[in-house]
Design a protein that fits this description.
With 162 residues, the chain is mainly alpha-helical. The protein has a single domain, classed as Dehydroquinate synthase-like, alpha domain (Up-down Bundle), CATH 1.20.1090. Helix content is 51%, strand content 9%. Helix 1 runs antiparallel to helix 2, helix 1 crosses helix 4 and helix 1 runs parallel beside helix 6.
């Protein structure tokens, strides 16, 4: 859903994942919403988890809007386009503030670190792994969570929803 936003490209090396690459911002991002109709329910849910991630790290209103509008987003139409546009805008805000990943851009990895533990066998798609890793990452005790958008009381509430 969001890989076109942010300009970070990378390939894996023997030393780790995505360690060889570059930063190059796109001039234009096109999104063909009809392509989502070809996804299996599992892949659609994994992409939806990526949308929810942006609500957790940048836009609390988006998180709860996604929850309230899930049926319309799943069905397609204007709500789906709005969800993707808002999530891409949230990612863009994070990227603009930290283009080269020196600080808060690391929040974009929310769920991915735990998710890669699920990536055995490798046939499990990355987005599905991230979706599985998101609740674990959210509940993991860490001081960095204080900089996230949801206040502590809502964090417990959000972890039940994801």
């Amino acid at each position: 859903m969001d890989s076109s936003v942010g300009g970070k490209t990378g390939i894996n090396s023997v030393h780790g994942k995505n360690l060889v690459g570059a930063f190059h911002q796109p001039r234009l991002v096109l999104a063909d919403l009809t392509a989502l109709e070809t996804l299996s329910p599992r892949h659609f849910a994994a992409g939806y988890a990526e949308l929810a991630k942006y609500g957790l790290i940048d836009d609390e209103e988006l998180f709860f809007w996604l929850e309230a509008n899930y049926p319309q987003i799943k069905a397609g139409g204007p709500a789906r386009g709005e969800a993707i546009a808002r999530a891409c805008a949230a990612k863009a805000r994070v990227v603009v503030a930290d283009e080269k990943e020196a600080g808060n851009r690391a929040l974009l990895n929310l769920g991915h670190t735990f998710g890669h533990a699920w990536k055995k066998p490798p046939a499990i798609p990355t987005a599905c792994c991230m979706a599985k890793g998101l609740p674990s990452a959210w509940c993991w005790p860490t001081g960095s969570r204080r900089s996230w958008v949801l206040p502590p009381l809502r964090m417990r509430d959000a972890s039940k929803r994801i």
